[in-house]
Design goal:
The protein has 517 residues and is α/β, with parallel strands linked by helices. The chain contains 23 helices and twelve strands. GO terms for molecular function: 4 iron, 4 sulfur cluster binding; metal ion binding.
């Protein structure tokens, strides 16, 4: 079978239409622009819908088994709150304990400094090939591209990350980076891009896994340097941990002579016993498993066992600026489970690439704008807090109880505050004009009656599909329902004629609702 490259394979129907971004937190497009593109990819939407439904069902079963699930969530929230409150102290404690056990600690102010440190350590070993454990931190810094520019090849060993890397793609999910691919597409990617893939490879999952295992075995046996991220660092002991499902991480953490771990400064827990909380919350929320098949923990260097040189890089890259926001800082509590993405109606339709960041979905919508401080109109990530229906489902499933909807509203307000220093746009004018009406009971009542005229331009399905400018700014992206034949006040008077207060109660309720809105 002939292998076909340049993104036009004939073996699986796969294609990659995402360019490798220079900044993995800012791909260059706004969310509306990204969503317009991804919504046209019907195959991706089918793949994504099937995968998220499966994960949600498994998660629901595993959570239902836990009589103390809410208590676990409360405990996780409390630990993460403590970390945010004591972060400088805990980081110093972690550094001291890593160093005392033979490890070497580096500090990186931003992604560029973190990449330089990693590349410098690798160069000092005289190698040009390294193996990698799945890591969001290295995705955040675009480490693979940085190393490639310096003649160093980083081989992803997580199966989903390997699929993304072989396809010159970008991840679209925090936990399952290749969630937008089905097994036929994976077969095509392997046949087109994996030099040692069997010519008679089918799309059977066992065959695909066996092919990946054989391909990676040679990488593991030859590599003398490995790069990892971490799920948790323990301040009390200097321990670092990785939880994963395939065992590839275990190979990276034991076989090479040198291990380099890149860690965001927020990924700490104060005590070793705190690990027990998150090893229950994380697998159930991420993949619907009772526990991760592989939980690896290492503390410094042990002579004759595992890597004999251990480096940990503590990276800020916008985290201290996020910590300075008393509302937005809760985003740093994220344990990267992806449960908010699996339940989000917006993510399920648009996929992760629409968000223009390696952190997609609801958590990406509150984390990326804070890490980048990109809330001005000229920054594409300022649109992310608006990429939500505010249905609240993400907050309900978050295992550490991050109030994502509240942070989304908060960041929307911050974005508007930044914009107030610029020339007002059409939305500013519209909201300014509507404020007097919405704050006056009589004007609001009159407007409620006047809007009933919308039925004249609505279709048979009760929606308005198109209106002239400036209303086209709304109807160009969504249908507008026509006003109901009856207002709330009228419905109340009709259905509650004997209620205390009568019509005045309805007027009071409606007025209060209007003021709150």
């Amino acid at each position: 079978m002939t292998q076909v490259f340049l993104g036009m394979p004939h073996t699986g129907g796969w294609r990659t239409d995402v360019e490798q971004p220079a900044d993995t937190l800012r791909w260059g497009h706004t969310f509306p622009q990204g969503a317009h593109k991804t919504l046209a990819n019907t195959q991706m939407r089918r793949n994504l819908g099937h995968a998220t439904r499966t994960i949600r069902s498994k998660r629901a079963m595993r959570v239902a088994e836990m009589p103390d699930w809410e208590e676990l969530r409360n405990a996780g929230e409390a630990v993460k709150f403590e970390v945010a409150s004591r972060l400088p102290e805990l980081l110093e404690q972690f550094e001291a304990n890593v160093t005392a056990r033979g490890g070497i600690v580096h500090w990186a102010r931003d992604a560029a400094e973190a990449n330089r440190i990693v590349a410098g350590i690798i160069a000092s070993k005289g190698v040009d090939d390294v193996v990698k454990v799945k890591s969001m931190a290295t995705q955040e810094t675009n480490l693979n591209e940085y190393l490639a520019d310096r003649g160093i090849t980083a081989h992803e060993t997580d199966l989903a990350e390997m699929i993304v890397q072989l396809a010159d793609d970008m991840p679209s999910h925090i936990v399952v980076p290749a969630i937008h691919r089905n097994r036929s597409e994976v077969r095509g990617i392997f046949l087109d891009r994996m030099e040692d893939a069997p010519a008679d490879l089918t799309d059977d999952p066992q065959e695909l896994t066996a092919a990946a295992r054989a391909h990676l075995r040679h990488k593991f046996l030859r590599a003398s340097v490995a790069v990892s991220g971490t799920n948790m660092g323990v301040a009390e002991t200097g321990t670092v941990s990785i939880v994963e499902s395939e065992g590839n991480g275990r190979m990276c953490l034991t076989l090479p002579d040198t291990l380099i771990t890149l860690m965001g400064i927020e990924k700490l827990v104060p005590r070793f016993q705190d690990v027990e909380i998150f090893t229950q919350l994380l697998p159930r929320s991420a993949t619907g498993e009772r526990m991760n098949p592989y939980t690896s923990m290492w503390t410094g260097v042990t002579p004759g066992d595992g890597p004999q040189e251990f480096h940990v890089i503590l990276m800020d890259n916008g985290r201290t600026k996020t910590l300075a926001d008393p509302v937005g800082r809760a985003a740093l509590a994220c344990i990267r489970c992806g449960s908010c993405m699996n339940i989000c109606p917006v993510y399920q339709h648009t996929g992760g690439h629409a968000y223009g960041s390696v952190y997609p979905g609801p958590i990406g919508s509150i984390l990326t704008p804070q890490l980048t401080q990109g809330l001005a109109d000229d920054d594409p990530v300022h649109t992310l807090p608006f990429a939500s229906s505010l249905c609240g489902a993400c907050g309900e499933v978050c295992p550490v109880k991050i109030d994502i909807p509240t942070i989304l509203v908060h960041l929307r307000a911050r974005s508007v505050d930044v914009k107030r220093r610029l020339v007002p746009d059409i939305w500013d004018v519209a909201l300014g004009a509507s404020a007097p009406v919405m704050s006056n009971e009589k004007l609001w009542a009159a407007a409620s009656q006047a809007v009933k005229a919308s039925a004249l331009v609505g279709g048979q399905d009760g929606t308005i599909g198109a209106l002239p400018f400036p209303a086209s700014l709304w109807t160009g992206a969504r249908d507008l329902p026509v006003a109901p034949a009856e207002t709330f006040r009228q419905w109340w008077r009709r259905t509650h004629p004997e209620a205390p207060g009568g019509g005045s109660a309805a007027q009071s309720t409606a007025s209060t609702t209007t003021e709150e809105n």
